[in-house]
Amino acid sequence: MWNLPNILTLMRIALIPIFIVVFYLPWEWRYPVTAGIFILGSITDWLDGYLARKLEQSTPFGAFLDPVADKLSVSAALILLLEANPSFLFAVPALVIIGREIVVSALREWMAEIGQRASVAVSMVGKLKTALQMVAISVLLFFNPETDRVYHIIGLVLLYGAVILTLWSMYVYLKAAWDELVKSDSL
């Protein structure tokens, strides 16, 4: 359990309260520092998976904890951004992204229960969605929305791009599981 990939995943979870505290500090440098902490966590997301495969240190604990860490860090960042930008424009992507994570997590859990976990394995669309989401959130965290409007708009456009990939990846997962979802128990 205590191998390097799992330690990195635990570190990513430990970074969440730190970037939340930094986000609320009353100093201008809080924006790039918050983004830097989020980016560090995003890099460890890629690195822990790479190291687990490369060092052959994949564990059930790591397989469980890695997606939990992803969902916690993205959800925390989206909630912070929504609180700092209370508008329909931020509420929609936050709800879509967090809602998709709940739906796909439940779907994967249910498919695993019926022995069909492999049919809802992580897809390339899901990986692209995650990458774009991390970039968009990093941009939105990095710049002060009051003084850096252009970057704020760029971040928002990237976030909506992530929403499109989010919906697409959810469609891919639901399509893969559809036959199992609509099966009738009665014969």
Summarize the topology:
Elements: H1 4-23, H2 30-54, H3 60-84, H4 88-113, H5 124-142, H6 149-181
Helix pairs in contact: 1-2, 1-3, 2-3, 2-5, 3-4, 3-5, 4-6, 5-6
Any overview of this molecule?
With 187 residues, this protein is an all-alpha fold. The protein has one domain: Four Helix Bundle (Hemerythrin (Met), subunit A) (Up-down Bundle), CATH 1.20.120.1760. The chain has six helices and no strands. The termini are far apart. The mean pLDDT is 91.
Distance, first to last CA:
45 Å
Question: According to CATH, what is the class?
Answer: Mainly Alpha
Largest sheet descriptor: none
Arithmetic mean pLDDT: 91
CATH topology (fold) name:
Four Helix Bundle (Hemerythrin (Met), subunit A)
Radius of gyration: 18 Å
CATH architecture: Up-down Bundle
